[in-house]
Amino acid sequence: MSGKRNIYLKMKSLEQAREILLNTFTSQSKVETIATVDSAGRVLAGPAFASVSSPNFHSAAMDGVAVKAGITFNATEAEPKKLKIGTDGYYINTGRVMPENCDAVIMIENVNDAGDGCIEIEAPVFPWQHVRKMGEDIVATELLFARNHKITPYCIGALLTGGVFRVDVKIKPKVLIIPTGGELKSWNQAEENGLEPGDVIESNAWVLGGLVQELGGEFNRIETIVDDQKKIEDAVQKAVDGVYDIVCILGGSSAGSEDFSRAVLESLGQVHVHGVTIMPGKPTVIGSVADKPVFGIPGYPVSAIIAFEQFVAPVIARMLKQPEKTRQRMEVLPARKIPSKLGTEEFLRVKLGKAGENVIAAQLPRGAGCITSITEADGIIRIPRDSEGIAGDEKAVVELLKPAASIDNTIVVVGSHDNTLDILADQLRTVPQGYELSSSHVGSMGGLMALKRGTCHIAGSHLLDAEDGSYNISYIKRYLPDIPVVLVNLVMRDQGLILPRGNPKSIQAIEDLARDDVRIINRQGGSGTRILLDYKLKQAGINPDSIAGYQDEEFTHMSVAAAVLGNRADAGLGIFAAAKALDLDFIPIVTEEYDLVIPKKHFDSKKIKTLIYIIKSDGFKGRVNDLGGYNTISTGKIVWE
Fold first, then answer.
1. Which segments of 3-100 are extended strands (E)?
2. SS3 content of the chain, % helix, strand, coil (to 5)
3. Which band of pLDDT confidence, cut at 50, 70 and 90, is reported for residue 3?
């Protein structure tokens, strides 16, 4: 079934959309009674009162002798007091019931054996000393937890101790997730049959389902519905007529001709919001059917997560009478200027690490389809819709996705991309200190400028000096004259032309890039690879303006390789490891030096010492050599300081 193209008729700001959402849905929670031992994570529907005291008897708090405190009052070191066991006192172990008429315990280490069944003490005890009195912890009938309290494992201990063996709790909100789209394949289909061009593994339902469970709800996912408005309508109607409290339609919320979420809601109920001025997450649809909330969730993974957290999560929290989840915040300094679009609130994913006194935020890819931009993120910077971005020297506030303590253990690398950085990051996680590596790929020159601003610990660089053939040193002298640094070799690597498998256009050398039938993919300005290409073009007497695709840029070697694999380009300059990873052809051009530029003020820190130790290890070198196109003969050596 084909639909007409949608128009965003009810576009709202985030604040407006949330206000509409929370004013529209005020549902009451249902209640069930469950065993206390099964109640961790559940929310009390009513108050929980103790039915017994704890302890429900006077008990010894120490091993020793139970006595009536009054008979010990005249005991001194000079005139010890003798007591008869069985008459004046009674041996007792911790936790045991106090004998009748006893109100104190003399610690066993303060008791001397006097023979003939007697003991001797040199100091008195006062009433109730070393005794746990009845009701000391819990008194019968006292309130243990008020309604709407979320039960923790600790709470279970208190409830059972207070004689509460069953509790009334709110029934978990039930969420039905409906994936839509003919391109989607389930994970088990992909596992069994593989993927064809155009196939997409359906993952969003499992991601959102996990988020539902974290919030205290439960979810069900039905099999993917091919884009068909009637079938989607039937699934939604069945859900709201049944046990489900919330329905999420995944995909089909945008403005395409086969995006049916809005049409489904218009047909069955009411659309409250279609489109929110946020990025990612703009196509979100909020509606109701039979007074139950139904959401049209965008299909891109990060959009789906942001939409869920901003709109579905608050409804679940309200159903359970719980506060919305909040994240710890802190001030950070961007690694570089971050532009943003006016009129849209942006949720920018960032990696974090502490360099000097500042916590540095390195921007991750902004694409809503990049799930790794949120799995790798340490935090989110929300750029207001009335802002054009964040200046490089302007502080910003980040919402933390990970514990703040992990930031101090993060090494921030900014500069040129290399595949071995991924191996280094993985190897670094094997050390007991729990160090992490955050790498931001802005090119070699971008890395040196980040060092100059003090926004990273290390810059990755492979800048060729065309005059003498050396790498990096002349650039360091020119751009970092006042910053003492240590230059450590990471790898020697093969750079060359990455080509489609079989080299269908028979490209053999740099000169072939100027042919009319060849289109390239380039690296960004300031990257070492771009400088190398420009140097080689100059040597060959080729004007860059004559090369198709010269202005088309990517930020990593893997992105260049992916562009060639996806037929966006016939060639691109990059490293052999990237070509090998995607089974592409490669023509070597040069073996170059890829170094780490490390300020001396960081070089002797425990983090960097650990990093250098790993770089020099046989384990790291072995994994690097397995990638292909690398030489580790100088790996870990100081090149210059």
1. 31-35, 48-49, 59-60, 64-67, 81-84, 89-92
2. 30, 30, 40
3. very low
What is the per-residue pLDDT across 519-538, written as a single tens digit (0 to 9) for each?
Answer: 999 999 888 899 999 999 99
Complete domains list, the chain, with CATH: 14-28+173-319 (3.40.980.10), 31-54+136-170 (3.90.105.10), 59-132 (2.170.190.11), 328-404 (2.40.340.10), 473-640 (3.40.190.10)
Residue whose C-alpha is closest to residue 30's, from 14, 12, 18, 42: 42
CA distance to 42, 355, 359, 422, per residue, from 409 (Å)? 35, 11, 11, 17
Determine the residue type at 552: D
Query: Which residues sit opposite 250 in a β-bridge?
Result: 179, 297
Round to whole Å and give the CA distance between 234 and 239: 9
Query: In which residue are the tokens 């909330």 written?
Result: 293
Stated pTM of the model:
0.81
**Please, which residues bridge with residue 170 across strands?**
31
Give the bridge partners for 59, in sequence order: 97, 132
User: Alpha helix (H) ranges present in 308-411?
Assistant: 313-319, 372-375, 405-408
The answer to whether 222 and 247 are in contact (CB under 8 A) is no
Contact 293, 45 (CB under 8 A): no
Q: What is the DSSP string of 269-306?
A: SEEEEE-BSEES-TT-EEEEETTEEEEEE-SSHHHHHH
Averaged pLDDT for residues 283-294: 95
Q: pLDDT tens, 560-603? A: 999 999 999 999 999 999 999 999 999 999 999 999 999 999 99
Query: 584: which residues sit within 8 A by CB, 6+ positions away?
Result: 498, 499, 500, 501, 561, 564, 565
Distance CA 197, CA 193 (A): 13
Q: How many CB atoms lie within 10 A of CB 504?
A: 10
CA distances from 186 to 175, 224, 251 (A): 19, 8, 15
Nearest to 487 by CA among 594, 605, 595: 595
80-129 confidence digits (pLDDT tens): 999 999 999 999 999 999 999 999 999 999 999 999 999 999 999 999 99
Tally the C-alpha atoms within 13 A of residue 358's C-alpha that lie toward its C-beta: 20
Please say whether the beta carbons of 94 and 131 come within 8 A. Answer: no
365/374 Cα distance (integer angstroms): 9
Cα torsion at 623, 624, 626, 630 (round to 10°)?
Answer: -170
For residue 94, which of 52, 51, 64, 137 has the smallest C-alpha distance? 64
Q: Which amino acid is at 391?
A: A
